[in-house]
Design brief:
alpha+beta, Umud Fragment, subunit A, nine-stranded mixed β-sheet, 9 strands, elongated
């Protein structure tokens, strides 16, 4: 008697797809709400969870920030996170990293002295350092107007309380001297693109975008109905934001880092 042909086995669902589905279910979100947090559609989330398509690197970073410790390390690893990418590391993460046994990761403790008792657990988020430059006054910045879609070169790990909205936080470099002595040429600024409403940013340092000038870092100052971009260095002129000069506020600057002289 002839044998019936064996049924072909369907390919197993990739581990990354199962991890994304598990994260969404743990957050009690449907695919539409989950996609909204990640700046994508419900259909895209569905393709990720079925293993039909893999998320891009920036989405893996955001997934890790949403997941928290210890699941974050799986997602950050898929984004290409390596030990040399981490510019800021909190030493208290050592024990949890050892438990998750993340490969290619090393904690270096600077200035270690007497042991201190930890009052609470420290949470980190990974922030993409974008291949994007914001110019100060008198310079021309990159032309991109959608920060979360920009490619990134590495990642910076920072305490979670430094980033109130992790999935909307990214880092970019600054060029120019109009924000000196506060922010110098070559500094890296962390920005939150969920905070872009002008009425709530008076007196705050922001990232603004203009079609011809690209990205600019400056301080938003409001005078009645007139909004201006004010440099810290008074040798540079202010920019008035009116109907003739169409600028868009993209993000609030949260903090910045730079090398010591």
């Amino acid at each position: 008697m002839a044998r019936l042909p064996a049924k072909s086995k369907s390919p197993a669902t990739p581990e990354c797809a199962r991890a994304i589905l598990r994260l969404r279910q743990n957050m009690h979100l449907d695919q539409a709400a989950f996609g909204e947090v990640l700046h994508c559609s419900a259909m895209t989330v569905s393709r990720w969870e079925r293993g039909v398509q893999e998320p891009p690197s920036h989405a893996y970073v955001e997934l890790g920030n949403m997941a928290g410790d210890p699941a974050c390390w799986f997602f950050w690893g898929r984004a290409g996170l390596r030990n040399e990418d981490l510019m800021r590391v909190v030493p208290q993460m050592r024990r949890r990293l050892e438990r998750t046994a993340m490969p290619d990761f090393e904690i270096v403790t600077a200035g270690s002295g007497g042991k201190k008792r930890l009052r609470s657990k420290v949470q980190l988020v990974a922030i993409p350092l974008l291949k994007v430059v914001a110019a100060s006054h008198g310079e021309k910045g990159d032309g991109t107007s959608v920060l979360h879609q920009a490619p990134f070169e590495s990642m910076i790990a920072a305490p979670k309380d430094w980033c109130p909205n992790p999935t909307s936080t990214s880092c970019l470099r600054v060029k120019g001297n109009s924000m000196m002595p506060l922010i110098q040429d070559g500094y890296v600024v962390a920005v939150d693109s969920s905070q872009s409403e002008r009425s709530k940013l008076n007196g705050k340092i922001v990232i603004a975008w203009h079609r011809d000038m690209g990205l600019t870092v400056s301080r938003l100052q409001r005078y009645g109905r007139t909004d201006t971009l004010q440099p810290e260095n008074r040798e540079y002129e202010s920019i008035t934001l009116d109907s003739k000069h169409k600028w868009t506020i993209l993000a609030k600057v949260l903090w910045w880092i730079g090398k010591a002289p």
